[in-house]
Design brief:
This protein has a six-stranded mixed sheet, sandwiched between helices. The protein has a single domain, classed as Alpha-Beta Complex (Spore Coat Polysaccharide Biosynthesis Protein SpsA, Chain A), CATH 3.90.550. It is built from seven helices and six strands. It is α/β, with parallel strands linked by helices. It is elongated and about 70 Å long. α2 links the parallel β1 and β2.
């Protein structure tokens, strides 16, 4: 009987610690969202969206991208070929927003040569961004970001020592230098190089280091 009570107590304690951890994480997330709501730094941003086929909830995902709470941005959708089923949904989502829709374009990447198809698609999309672009953001078509997503991602880049902001998607200020984009710059590449798997931003990941380390892939 005592053994039963002992293990039952362990399970209860484990639940209490898990609940405590959940509340701590919630507090952290709310704090980070408040900290990154900086309306003084909102440069022109390009959101690059690789698409292939009909992801679940694709229309809702695209609506979320067309309705970001951010003053000046564009959407660059990229597909493998002109027969991709996602094209029709992209056009429908854009037309649904009407005059409220941000600038958008569709890039037909064609077949890859010498690299993976997705890498090839992203490279082609970067070549087509607006010349005003200062911030590149990357998001897959199966993601549904909140209205504050782009603003929260871009805000830390106000600090010149911060060159990249990782998250569910990656974002990099210097990604298009030399027209060779490091598609992992905001995510796997810097994580592997610097080992900061828990850092919300990469302090010191400025233009010089991005040129030297990330663009050589």
């Amino acid at each position: 009987m005592y053994v039963f009570y002992f293990f039952a107590s362990l399970i209860v304690l484990q639940g209490i610690f898990s609940l405590r951890g959940g509340f701590r994480f919630l507090t952290f997330v709310r704090g980070e969202m408040k900290r990154t709501e900086d309306k003084t730094y909102q440069p022109f941003a390009s959101i690059i969206v690789p698409c292939r086929g009909l992801d679940q909830g694709l229309m809702m995902n695209l609506r979320a991208l067309f309705n970001q709470n951010y003053p000046t941005y564009e959407l660059v959708f990229v597909v493998d070929n002109e027969n991709d089923a996602a094209l029709k949904v992209i056009v429908e989502a854009r037309d649904e927003c009407g005059s409220r829709a941000p600038a958008s374009r569709i890039v037909i990447a064609g077949s890859a040569d010498g690299c993976g198809q997705k890498v090839h698609n992203l490279l082609r999309a970067v070549d087509e961004v607006d010349a005003r672009c200062e911030v590149f953001a990357f998001v897959d078509s199966d993601a549904r970001p909140s209205p504050a997503w782009l603003r929260a991602l871009a805000a830390p880049l106000k600090d010149e020592r911060v060159g990249a902001r990782p998250g569910i998607v990656g974002l990099c200020r210097w990604a298009a230098v030399s027209r060779r984009i490091c598609v992992r710059c905001g995510t796997l590449r810097l994580l592997r190089l610097w080992g900061r798997t828990r850092e919300p931003t990469f302090v010191g990941a400025g233009r010089r280091r991005c040129d030297a380390r990330c663009l050589k892939i």
